[in-house]
# Entry
Amino acid sequence: MIPFTHLKYTFVAATCMGLLISCGAKDSDKIGEAQLCLDKAVQGAAAGCMEKISGIESKGAYTLRCSAGFIDEGFTQPARFKSAFDALSTSGGLNTEAFFGVLAFNSKANSTANKNFASETYLNCTKSEAKGMMLLGSMATTATTLAALAVGGPYVNGAQPTPAQINGALTAALGDPVALAAIGSAVSTTYTASCLTGTKADAALCSQLDSALGPVDITNPTAVANAILTYWKNN
# Structure
């Protein structure tokens, strides 16, 4: 499973020494301060911790920014991640849709703000170059894009779409050029690093991506989005 299951208490703490070693003296002090702040952060407070590393462009700094995005979104305890991945591993229909429903960012007051926040978090995760973070970030921004298209919304201020509503959003996304571009870009950017290079970041997710994208030109975001959305819709 992606190492975000214990995001706040295990993953962030485990990376601390590596971050400090990989940075210069002044940067390491700032990252250490941000690390300690993040360890204690609650939802809505993590962004303030990141002010301590403003201007630092190292992988370690982006690791913390990626983590901070998920903490500010409300993933401050393992339960929400566990709920998402439990849904993904459940056999039967709409398991992937249930995963996306839990993972979609919904803490902001409108869908555009949620999509922007998920996209920002995804970009920070990508710049960390940690394959698990990259994959999770791409799935979070994909889930949030789908939630914005789901009927019954907007899904804001903590509201979650149902698996059936996400299933309907998969069809809607296939006909939405903006959604296709966003989802295709996120998946194609991270797929090679997270699933095709070395150990797979997450066996279940990578298996789905492998099945959908095997014959697809992964440098073509629209083709990637069409393939993976169709796969999720039909499986």
